Amino acid sequence: xxxxxxxxxxxxxxxxxxxxxxxxxxxxxxxxxxxxxxxxxxxxxxxxxxxxxxxxxxxxxxxxxxxxxxxxxxxxxxxxxxxxxxxxxxxxxxxxxxxxxxxxxxxxxxxxxxxxxxxxxxxxxxxxxxxxxxxxxxxxxxxxxxxxxxxxxxxxxxxxxxxxxxxxxxxxxxxxxxxxxxxxxxxxxxxxxxxxxxxxxxxxxxxxxxxxxxxxxxxxxxxxxxxxxxxxxxxxxxxxxxxxxxxxxxxxxxxxxxxxxxxxxxxxxxxxxxxxxxxxxxxxxx
Amino acid sequence: xxxxxxxxxxxxxxxxxxxxxxxxxxxxxxxxxxxxxxxxxxxxxxxxxxxxxxxxxxxxxxxxxxxxxxxxxxxxxxxxxxxxxxxxxxxxxxxxxxxxxxxxxxxxxxxxxxxxxxxxxxxxxxxxxxxxxxxxxxxxxxxxxxxxxxxxxxxxxxxxxxxxxxxxxxxxxxxxxxxxxxxxxxxxxxxxxxxxxxxxxxxxxxxxxxxxxxxxxxxxxxxxxxxxxxxxxxxxxxxxxxxxxxxxxxxxxxxxxxxxxxxxxxxxxxxxxxxxx
Lengths: 286, 277
What we know:
The complex is a heterodimer of chains A (286) and B (277). Chain A is α/β, with parallel strands linked by helices and 286 residues long. In chain A, 38% of the residues lie in helices and 22% in strands.
């Protein structure tokens, strides 16, 4: 299920008549089964790009092809698109509404044509994939869960429809460190099972450690893209500011000012630790 | 003490047995910068919502500026003393024009009309957003939006400003903007209470209150709390990167002269280690 994005643009008009170009001439390809991160400041067009890929907005220029077919072409089966692409919006826990967790997760399967036992099996699978004990959680009210749990239930609801492509908009914002790690661990598992993941995040550490490819947006333009590590290295060379740098990279900058130069490939915590071990090994003070 | 609490207990269930807060004692001095740290569901927000009577005290005692929070006639005074900024700025706007949004609170408190423009202007200056008076909040960046929300709170001239995960939804630049303003207000003498699970934001605090499962697990200087691996693990938090690196290097036989809290301190300790070898 490869996604080809060609000269994609999206513009709209404000009530004042002013034209806003949210996305300008984006071209890139996302391979089947990839784990892609999207990075960029607030207002750079990240969410708009996700909405276009999900077919929730129509581009004002260019096209998006799924397996070679233009998803906005006349006669393209939009229902098929909805089945293939799942979207988890920002703060999805606000979208929970059913009286029990099981009913909430099953909602998206209502018109799927699956039988009742099939639906139950699918709901069980989705909740277990998100780390829940199905029997314990199924009859609980979603509103009585903690923030992190609610979010996992909301994601299970999207997962239950078995999309081939999963889009996440800021999925870890507001989660505490443990919930963050759990979530990223589950997403990696889903990705390893073959689902393409596209994740928008402000968390540089999460992007650096979990994604394979990175798209960098700024003011509606794709300013860089490629394998995650390479992009981080390039961003550090290009910009002196904090944008797009991991903590490990910021520390290498500070060390370089003190004439301790670590390899440019230091991007993650583990990179930094092993580079420092190598640099500092061979005796302590005195 | 500006805020003095003893044995605070709270449950969200009617007649329930699961407590969101259990026997919490708290002391906050005027002008202190306090960070309340804890995992999701540890009771941080529940606790601070008692300070301005958003939640009613069920058990225990709590006084804010010597006012007993149970005094119903003082609720509005408490709300004015304790300003609060929440997580999502988009949920906190009431107007589509920045200056009207900031004036909203003032109008509700019946501040004389002729005084309002000046109060709005000085509040915007405090958050460094002058020039944005006529803008729509929805055209601003995340950090700018949160600063406008804060200006609305500051216009009421509160003594205590509570930030309830006010940086959680922001991009790195926006987070820095809000943190900078927090520190500025602290320097100006305001009492700042910030709730977060970004441990890095606790580094500059006067005092860190670590919460876990509705209880205060520990309270003290950032250095004492954030460098204590055992404590952090019980609280289900991950220590700041410099702290983790210090201990991981130690395991590899590399002993830095002190446990750093910030990236700058870490770089300094590493370079010192290097020049000593």
